[in-house]
Write a structure and sequence with these properties.
Helix content is 27%, strand content 19%. Strands 3, 4, 5, 6, 7 and 8 form a six-stranded mixed beta sheet that branches. Strands 9-10-11-13-12 form a five-stranded antiparallel beta sheet, covered by helices on one side. The chain has a two-stranded antiparallel sheet with strand order 1-2. The chain has 14 helices and 25 strands. Keywords: ATP-binding, Kinase, Nucleotide-binding, Transferase, Tyrosine-protein kinase.
């Protein structure tokens, strides 16, 4: 595994508790974040291999009855609950996980006097009940009910009004997902190619599914739910689309857009001039065109390392294509900034490429919903991509994402051959970022326009560092200039018309060989192109051309001076257009 790959960061989310439920000893009043040990029969252990018949009955009840009620939200954690319960006496039913014992339990979450309280539901042969709920509302009959909705009906009669909160549209039923072949696996989860049938649709679509393994840790499941919450507010052509999260039953699954072009480090489509010869490299039937990350750990496929080495030694990549990649990423990040989402792990490994060579930003496991978050302790983080203020003060915001974007540009310029600031160690990297005035400056980098943009995005002064709206405007101006002036440098892909012209001219040269000799009026054959005289070869000019003289150009026109390729320079970075 990559030593610099981003792992989990311990952080404090503003307005969100780090854990789940905590049941207190007073009359059912509960803090919204940690569940104590409880041996009630309603608790379901995470280890499914030791599940009892009673616990299996609870799972069956969820699958057959409970999931069909819109007020049941499936697996959910405290921070999300607080955002959903906005009104007094609004409630929902969800599944929670004990922090210490990792047991699963059902509970009712309700907002009372401005606070979110949680009441555990227990089940036995007599039915469903909640001791704490009855203690909080003494008008309720102390009895058990065959169904949870009957318990809720009895509760509604003891208060003035209760309002159920329906679950979000991104919560999917497991029955709508059909898993296909496994694409990869990690320590706590697996990635599958799958089919998803949207509600009301007649045909399924191909998707990628990240599925938690049966004994997945609580943090893993929380990561799934958090990633779904963040991705649920993002809808952009340059961001991987989230279809939903299947959290009503077990196991929890994320259903996302399937991107089969690899990332910026593993992309055979970006080798525009060598793609046709990829089969000659003997990548024997491996799915090298698919790359996912699970829990911030890369999932690789057979022979991908072999292909990666080939990619790093190939320089036939269009400069215009590289600028287009940078423009796509800037567009996606601008949308994220507008939606107040901080990515916090922007790097080439998290930029996937479609078959049409469009960038899709992925991996939102470390992302944060909000304008800024302060990290208490950086346990393991993508050091090479972090801004100085992050290393010094633990600050994450849009400006720190802009810094990471600048580092990503260095990866593009270097064709992802090495990690940023390699071969420095992580300790040396931290010192270099803190002490150097321009830690990521690239001299003689190509495309030069991107190299200039690196200095702007990696400005150590966060106040003068641009936001993504400015970055996107600048990169679009660079791309428009490149399109107007034609090829900047490097090898560009050939248009279909150019391919036809090239092949036609080649064929014409071959076919015209027989026409190189022309039969004269008296029947003799003369060589039209050249003739030997005195051991030298000279061009035969027609009698008409001799009489007319050299060809004259129209008034005002002149032949252009020949420019040596060595003297050609790339156009300067255009100024930012005024809005």
């Amino acid at each position: 595994m990559h030593q610099n790959s981003a792992l989990k960061i311990e952080f404090i989310r503003k307005g969100e508790s780090p854990s789940d439920l905590e049941f207190s000893d007073n009359v059912g009043q509960v803090n919204s974040d940690q569940i104590s040990d409880c041996n009630s029969t309603g608790s379901i252990p995470d280890n499914q291999s030791g599940i009892s018949d009673m616990e299996k009955s609870v799972d069956d009840y969820i699958s057959n009855i409970l999931k069909h009620h819109l007020w049941y939200h499936g697996m959910m954690f405290g921070g999300t609950v607080e955002k959903l319960l906005k009104w007094e006496h609004s409630y929902l039913v969800r599944r929670a996980i004990q922090r210490s014992s990792m047991k699963k339990t059902l509970c009712i979450s309700v907002k009372i006097d401005g606070k979110v309280l949680n009441f555990q539901l227990t089940w036995n042969e007599d039915g469903w009940g909640s001791t704490k709920l009855v203690a909080k509302f003494p008008k309720m009959a102390q009895k058990r009910y065959a169904h949870i909705y009957q318990l809720l009906d009895a509760w509604s009669l003891s208060v003035n009004a209760i309002t159920p909160v329906p679950r979000n549209r991104i919560v999917l039923h497991h029955s709508s997902i059909t898993l296909g072949n496994k694409l990869g696996s990690g320590a706590f989860g697996e990635v599958y190619r799958a089919k998803y049938l949207p509600n009301g649709a007649s045909e399924s679509i191909e998707v990628a599914v990240k599925r938690a393994i049966g004994d997945a840790q609580r943090s893993t499941i929380q990561e799934f739910c958090h990633e779904a919450q963040v991705m649920g507010v993002l809808q952009h052509v340059n961001i991987v689309c989230l279809y939903g999260i299947a959290s009503l039953e077990q196991p929890v699954m994320l259903v996302m857009e399937l991107v089969t072009g690899g990332d910026l480090r593993l992309c055979r489509e970006m080798l525009l001039n060598t793609f046709r010869d990829a089969h000659a490299l003997n990548f024997e039937g491996a799915e090298i065109n698919t790359h996912f990350r699970y829990m911030n750990n890369p999932i690789r496929f057979p022979n991908s390392l072999k292909f990666q080495k080939h990619l790093q030694t190939t320089h036939n990549i269009s400069h215009r294509q590289l600028i287009t990649f940078a423009a796509d990423i800037a567009s996606g990040m601008k949308h994220m900034a507008q939606r107040r989402v901080i990515h916090r792990d922007l790097a080439a490994r998290n930029c996937l490429i479609t078959n049409s060579l469009k960038i899709k930003i992925s991996d939102f496991g470390l992302s944060h919903s909000g304008q800024e978050v302060i990290v208490k302790k950086l346990k393991k983080a993508p050091i090479r991509w972090l801004a100085p203020e992050t290393l010094q003060k633990g600050i994450f915001n849009e400006k720190t994402d802009v810094w990471s974007y600048g580092v990503l540009l260095t990866e593009i310029i270097n064709r992802c051959a090495t990690d940023p600031l390699a071969p420095r160690t992580l300790k040396e990297v931290q010192e270099w970022i803190k002490e150097s005035d321009h830690p990521h400056r690239i001299k003689n980098g190509e495309p030069k326009e991107l190299a200039d943009l690196v200095d702007i995005c990696c400005d150590k002064n966060s106040i003068t560092r641009p936001n993504f709206q400015t970055v996107r405007r600048r990169i679009r101006a660079i791309l428009e200039t490149a399109n107007m002036l034609g090829p900047i440098s490097g090898t560009l892909e050939m248009k279909k018309s150019e391919e036809r012209k090239s092949s036609t001219s080649t064929d014409r040269k071959v076919s015209n060989t027989a026409l190189m000799r022309k039969k004269s009026r008296d029947g003799k054959v003369k060589d039209r192109s050249t003739e030997r005289k005195g051991g030298t070869q000279r061009r035969i000019v027609s009698h008409r051309r001799r009489e007319i003289g050299p060809m004259k150009l129209p008034i005002g026109m002149s032949t252009p001076e020949k420019v040596s390729p060595q003297n050609m320079t790339s156009p300067a970075t255009p100024p930012i257009p005024k809005t």
